[in-house]
Write a structure and sequence with these properties.
The chain is α+β, with helices and mostly antiparallel strands. The protein contains seven helices and six strands.
């Protein structure tokens, strides 16, 4: 059984600069079949996360042009993150306490090295649960 975030995280997360558009993030999500992109400052450190839902609710539903709306304007800046050596138990507690479904995994400089999702943890801890089974199912698109 995996013990640390390193064992379950998805490495090499998709990242975009905070100045990129929502349309760019949506295109990256489509190409990689993912639901989130980490948002970076000019120095390469993570400053937020944007999800497919963020783009819909904070941009499109408000009538904003996704091609002109910057990620910095719609991403979640209150970034809850973890480190590779953190325990899975700690990640579960962080998600529970902060009501988040994804945790960016950051190195000592604040640069992203991975992402761990609720589904990743469900596959590891409870693969027979509904979430565990859904998380291991092939994409339906």
């Amino acid at each position: 059984m995996a013990k640390t975030i390193r064992d379950v995280m998805t490495r090499n997360p998709v990242t975009l600069p905070d100045s990129d558009s929502c349309a760019s993030a949506a295109k990256a999500m489509q190409q990689k079949d993912i639901g989130d992109v980490l948002v970076l400052r000019k120095d390469g450190s993570a400053c937020g996360i944007v999800t497919d839902r963020d783009i819909v609710v904070r941009a499109i539903a408000q009538g904003r042009d996704p091609g002109r709306t910057r990620l910095d304007d719609v991403c979640s800046h209150a970034l809850v993150s973890c480190k590779e050596d953190d325990s899975i138990d700690d990640a579960v507690e962080l998600m529970r306490k902060n009501a988040v479904r994804r945790l960016p995994v950051l190195d000592a400089n604040g640069s992203p090295v991975g992402v761990v999702s609720l589904g990743d943890l469900a596959r590891e801890r409870d693969p027979d649960s509904v979430l565990g089974k859904v998380s291991t199912a092939p994409p339906n698109n």
